[in-house]
Amino acid sequence: MIQRFNYTGREKIVRKNLSITIKRENDKITSFVLDRLDLQGLNLPPDADTWIEAYYRSELKRFDCGTVTNLKLPLVGELSDMAYTENLKFRILIAERQNRKILAHADRLAPEEPAGKEFILPVDFGGDLGNMIWTVKYEGDDGGPVLFINRKIPNIENIAKHDPMFFVYVYPVVIREILTYMIFVEGVDSVSDPSSEWHKKWLKFSCILGITPPQVLNPEHDNFDKDAASNWIDAVARAFCDKYVSKFNELINQLEKTP
Q1: pTM, rounded to two decimals
Q2: Rounded CA gap, 184 and 79, in Å?
Q3: Lowest mean pLDDT among 41-45, 216-220, 222-226, 245-249
Q4: Ramachandran class of 186: left when φ > 0, alpha when ψ lies in -120 to 50, beta otherwise
Q5: In this structure, are residues 151 and 126 in contact, taking their beta carbons and an 8 Å threshold?
Q6: For a designed S-S bond to 109, which of 47, 69, 90, 203 qualifies (C-beta 3.0 to 4.6 A apart)?
């Protein structure tokens, strides 16, 4: 049974002082590694217990990390038995051994991807969307986008990842919707150095596709050009389709074979 903790008067552990990396097999998250946890500068009892929790909504799994002066690092945590691993968050808890009072913590920690990989759009297959196939909600880190896909559709995870029709019809529209929201609802405060982490990731995504954003993407700015912003959104969606032209060709081949 998961023990309850007392959160009164706790300190925060700085994100840069820890490292959590996920591991994947066949594109599915199967485990994580906590390989660094720097507690220097915190006034903590040496025998205080340390834990890391992986959680999503009501599902939670806790791992023992040892004590403040005897951390079990690197710690490898098995996640394959959890139902929804793509959108997991992590928290670090340090508690007094006797009364379980929390002395320090870090919460809503997004794990790092393996070197060379960066996922900018979490996908949630756990929701019942009624008669909708998909929707985008801005419930991720820093208010970033999450793509929700209806769990009632049989084999939907495999379809979303591999079916060319889903890929061609859905993802370009999702990209347009997210970029439109980013500009015309939130507004990008700085294209060169945005304060929002998710804005920064999507601007980087467009540059990786070879599409340079306009210098101003904030509708409240005097130099904002609505047409330039709209053309940029269109160019990013087109560049995405060009990058994955193999999916388009695969769809054409399927349609040609259909009686």
Answers
A1: 0.67
A2: 38
A3: 245-249
A4: alpha
A5: yes
A6: 90
Cα–Cα distance for residue pair 86/4, rounded to 1 Å:
26
- The answer, yes or no, to whether the previous bond of 214 is cis (omega within 30 of 0) is no
Say if residue 3's pLDDT is above 70: no
Alpha helices in the chain (DSSP H): 156-162, 164-181, 197-208, 226-243, 245-257
Contacts of 224 (CB under 8 A, 6+ apart): 216, 217, 218
Tell me: pLDDT of 206 over 80: yes
Task: For the beta carbon of residue 111, count every other beta carbon within 10 angstroms.
Answer: 19
Chain-wide mean pLDDT for the chain?
87
For 122-135, b where at least 16 C-beta lie within 10 A, e where not — what string?
Answer: bbbbebeeeeebbb
